[in-house]
Amino acid sequence: MSVSTYTQPLTTLPEWQEYVDAIQRAPRTSPTVRIIEAGGLHLDLTGQVYSDEVAIHIEKLLEVRQLSARRAALIDGHPVNTTEGRAAWHTQLRTPRPTVEVAEERKRALEFVRRSDSERRWRNIVHIGIGGSDWGVRLVVGAFGYAGMWRNIRFVANIDGHAVEGGLAGLDPRETLVVVASKSFRTAETLENAKRAIEWMQAAGIHNPLNQVIAITANPKAALSWGLQENQIFQFWDWVGGRFSIWSAVSVAAGLAVGSDVVAGLQSGAKAMDDHFLNAPIKDNAPVQLAMAGIANRSILNYGSLNISAYDSRLANLIPYIQQLEMESLGKSVDLNGELITVPTGPAVWGMPGTDAQHTFFQWLHQGSDGAPVDFIACQNEDHTWKEHHTQLLAHCLAQREALMTGKTYEQAIAECISAGLSETKARELAKHKIHPGGRPSNLIMMRSLTPFALGALLALYEHKVFVQGLVWGLNPFDQWGVEYGKVLTKDITAELKGAPARTPHDASTQYWIDRINSES
C-alpha cells in the first residue's frame, strides 16, 4: 500500500483546502435534522457546520488519507503505532472470537470473579492504578454501582500520601483484596502505593499479605519478581494502550464490584460500534462524522477546547476518561514524518455533569468571547422512580443546546424586556447584555438508557473518533512521548530530594526549590 498521501503534510493536500473552503461557506448549523444511529446510540450532529458540499469534501479528504486501508490495519492488528512499532489492537479485546491468548486471559479473569463471588470473598477491593489503569474502572463502577454494591471498592491513584491513606482508612485488612494495575509494572505511583497497602496488611498481623494481592500487567516477569505467583497475575499486552485498558483484564475490579455481566455488556456494545465504524458508509458513519466535525471546529473555526456535558450524574467519571483519551492521543504538534503540523490539533477537553455545569461555566459557553463546542450526552429514559426529575433534566439539556444553536438577537431581547414590564429605553439598555450569539457548535449523543452495552458503544465511538482525527491530522494517536519526559526528570529530582548529587543541571527555579526543600526538611 502506498502511504505517500497518508504521510504528506495535511495543508499541502488540495483536498484539505477544498474541505476548508466548504466549511467556511456552510451554514453554522445544519438546515435539517442530522442524526446517525450507531450501536444503539443516536448521534445528533444538527448543531455542526455542515452542507452537502462539506459531505463531498469529507469523502475526498478521507479517501486521500486512506481511511479504508488504515482502518482495516487498525482492526486487523497491524503496527499502526508507528513510533513504537506496534499495533493498537484494543478492538481484539472485545471481539467474541479473539485470539487464543486473549480468550485464555478473558477466561481466567472471569473465573477469578466467579470464584470470588461464589465464595463471598473480598468484602473490600482496593484498586491501585493511575491513568488508563484507573479511569475506566472508576467510570464503570460509578455508572453501574451508584445505587450500592455488596463489595466496597476504593481507588488509589495519586502518589500523594493522602490518597492511599484515604483509600485504606476504615477497611478490614483481612477482607481486602488489593488490585495492582500497571501496564509496565514500573509505574512509580502505583508501586509505591502498593507497598503502603502491603505494609498496612502486615501491620494488621497478616502473615503473607501478597496472598491478598493480584496484578494486572503487560509485564508479568516484573510482577513475578515483585513476589506474586503466576495465578495472581492477569496479563494484557504491549499493543493495548493505557487509555484503552478497560477492555483488558484491568476490568477485573469492575467485575468484582458491579458484576462480570456488566463487563461483558461493555464489550458487546463496543464491538457493535467497531462493526459500525468498519462497515458504515462515510456519510452515515458516526465516529467519522463526529471526528470531522471536531476537526472543522478545531482546525478551521479555531475553537481551542471541547466541552463534555453529560446529563447523567452516573457519568461524572466520563469526563476525565474522555479527557485522557483525547488529550493524550491528540496532544501532538508533529506529524508522522516529525514535521510541524501547521493547523491546530487536539483541543483541550473539559466538563462536568449537567445540570451542575449550567451553574458553573455555561455563562462562558453562551456569551464568552471564545466559547467551545459541546458534546451533550443524555439518556432518553430514566432508571429511577422520580419521573419529574428526569423530565426536567432532559428539558435542561435540550434547552441549553437550543440556546447555543439559535441564540437570541438584540430585537428578541428588547421584546423580552418590554414584555417583562421595562420601558423601551430600559429595555434597549438591558437587551445588549442579553444577546446570545448562537451558532455555537454542539452534538447531542442520546442513549435510550444507561446500560453496559450503551456505555461500551459510547466509549468505542470516541476511540474511533480519535483515530480518524489522528489520521486526518497525520499524527500518531497511540504514543505519549510528552508524558515520558517528565517521568525521567522525576526520577532524578526524587534522588536529589533524598540527598543525591544532581546528575544534570536544572533551571534556576527548580534548583531553588530542591535546595530549599532539602535545607528545611
Task: List the topology elements.
Elements: H1 4-7, H2 14-25, E1 35-38, E2 41-44, H3 52-64, H4 67-76, H5 100-118, E3 124-128, H6 135-144, E4 152-156, H7 161-168, E5 176-181, H8 188-203, E6 213-217, H9 220-225, E7 233-235, H10 252-258, H11 260-279, H12 286-300, E8 305-311, H13 318-330, E9 348-351, H14 362-367, E10 374-379, H15 387-406, H16 410-419, H17 424-431, E11 442-447, H18 452-473, H19 481-497, H20 508-520
Parallel strand pairs: 3-4, 3-5, 5-6, 6-7, 8-9, 8-10, 10-11
Antiparallel strand pairs: 1-2, 2-11
List keywords for this structure.
521 residues; Rossmann fold; 4 domains; six-stranded mixed β-sheet; 11 strands
Notes on the structure:
With 521 residues, the protein is α/β, with parallel strands linked by helices. The chain has helices at residues 4-7, 14-25, 52-64, 67-76, 100-118, 135-144, 161-168, 188-203, 220-225, 252-258, 260-279, 286-300, 318-330, 362-367, 387-406, 410-419, 424-431, 452-473, 481-497, 508-520, and strands at residues 35-38, 41-44, 124-128, 152-156, 176-181, 213-217, 233-235, 305-311, 348-351, 374-379, 442-447. It is built from 20 helices and 11 strands. The strands form 2 sheets. A 6-stranded mixed β-sheet has the order 1-2-11-10-8-9, sandwiched between helices. It has a 5-stranded parallel β-sheet with strand order 4-3-5-6-7, with helices on both faces. The relative contact order is 0.14.
